[in-house]
Amino acid sequence: MRKFSAAIFFLLLVSTAKAQWRQISTQSEASPLRGLEHRYIVVEDSAAGDRASLEFAIFSTKSCRLRVIDQPSEPRQDLEEVMSRGNFLAAVNGGYFDPDYKPIGLLIFDGTIIAPLQKARLLSGVLSALAKKVQISRVAEFSMTQKPEAAVESGPMLVDLGKSVRGLESTRAARRTFAAVGAGDKAALGFCSDATLADLSSILAATLTSDFKIQRALNLDGGSSSAFWFKRANGSAFSIAEEKPVRDFVAIVPR
Predict the structure, then answer these.
(1) What SS3 state is found at 168?
(2) In the 8-state DSSP scheme, what is residue 48?
(3) What residues contact 67, with CB distance under 8 A and at least 6 apart?
(4) Residue 201 lies in a domain
(5) Considering the domain boundaries, does residue 7 fall inside one?
(6) Of 227, 69, 215, whose CA–CA distance to 134 is shortest?
(7) N or C: which end of the chain has fewer CB within 10 A?
(8) What domain count does the chain have?
(9) Which residues, in sequence order, are CB contacts of 74 under 8 Å at separation 6+?
């Protein structure tokens, strides 16, 4: 059962051309490691009455780091199965892949380049884990000279410089997975119930909580690939399963 946080009714107004969103509740629960928590946030379009829910694994890069989990060959296991085998704290599915499960865009696993950087309209950003930080870069900004330990190229960019990105698709709602970085040492992996990319961008650009203002957010592979997993403080897990096998995952592990 989720535990309610002390701050439960923050007001959130997110304006788009077609929707006016407000945050109606937030809940949180701890993990086995200090510096990582699970937050569940519900927002509502006050005009249409539609709702979206978001799962966040918010962590400090001082105590946690990101690791890519690659599944190059069959049988490809689901997220919950993979997470049960190691010292993992939270995870989501990773980047795009083709029908033969070959990665689309840059994929770096334990410092090794599995697939190269690509230039494509959809692939606008790179989530990467360096020795002491996690960052989201636009493709033109990304450099291998930083020697990332893990990286996933994906897109589109949802939030940049703390603001929603304009021109995103606004008609097709689907499950979404994303990564986000904030000021200081805060970062997050997340999952959203059915939402358009434009609406998710607007929601994430708003101040969801007083201690985590998103500066950049990157969309990961969504739809039937979307998955979320979080290890609770008591050792049990909260999990939302993907609907089909995926090539790779992005996990949070202790430093």
Answers:
(1) coil
(2) T
(3) 110, 129, 149, 150, 250, 251, 252, 253
(4) yes
(5) no
(6) 215
(7) N
(8) 1
(9) none
**What is the Cα–Cα distance from 255 to 234, expressed in whole angstroms?**
20
In a domain, 6, yes or no: no
Query: Which residue shows structure tokens 């200081």?
Result: 184
Dihedral sign computed on CA atoms, order 173, 175, 179, 183: positive
Q: Are 203 and 14 in contact (CB under 8 A)?
A: yes
* Cis peptide upstream of residue 254 (ω within 30 degrees of 0): no
pLDDT tens digit string along 169-190? Answer: 999 999 999 999 998 899 999 9
Q: Which helix (H) or strand (E) holds 199?
A: helix 197-205
CA distance 105 to 165: 21
Give the pLDDT score at 19: 61
- Predicted confidence at residue 8, as pLDDT, reads 32
The sign of the dihedral angle between the CA atoms of 197, 203, 206, 210 is negative
105 in a structural domain: yes
Host domain of residue 176 = 13-254
**pLDDT by residue (tens digit) across 1-40?**
444 343 333 333 343 345 677 888 999 999 999 999 999 9
Full DSSP string of 169-197: --S--EEEEEEEEESTTEEEEEEEEEE-H
Q: Could you tell me the pTM of the whole model?
A: 0.90
> Are 8 and 30 within 8 A, CB to CB?
no
| 57-72: burial string, b at 16+ Cβ within 10 Å, e else | bbbbbeebbbbbbbbe
